[in-house]
């Protein structure tokens, strides 16, 4: 009975996410929920550990590929890169990138210490997509910001 409830519960949540994705016109959420439902019902559940272990890396790979395409096809020149790295917006972008990677690092630490927080990150991402019309490209950043908030609240309690 408990195993059946667990299966049903996961399916219900994924169907709920699919519906939220469709209603919010978020193709990413709808597609992800739909693909997981397909994997679940076609006995391809052996893909779950692989996706869990390597899915984030695969997603980041495609994100980086899409960002680097302008370099590969020549739309961004070396001159443009040098100018952007020495201008105020470019220097601020470098600082932002450094801060983002640091926040990603503390986000990973938080997810290792408290893996249940991932569900809060997913729900927060859904709210951000639905109500703020955001793009869910930064689960590590979300975890980093959550870790920053957590540290700040601990600091305030002292």
Automatic annotation (TrEMBL):
Membrane topology reported for the UniProt record: Multi-pass membrane protein
Locations listed in the record: Cell membrane
InterPro entries: UPF0756_TM (IPR007382)
Pfam family, one: DUF441
Segments passing through the bilayer: 12-38, 58-76, 82-105, 117-134
Main location: membrane
Keyword line: Cell membrane, Membrane, Transmembrane, Transmembrane helix
Superkingdom field: Bacteria
Gene Ontology CC terms: plasma membrane
PANTHER family: UPF0756 MEMBRANE PROTEIN YEAL
Family: Belongs to the UPF0756 family.
HAMAP family: UPF0756
Identification of the protein by name: UPF0756 membrane protein Psch_02817
Source species: Pelotomaculum schinkii
Lineage: Bacteria, Bacillati, Bacillota, Clostridia, Eubacteriales
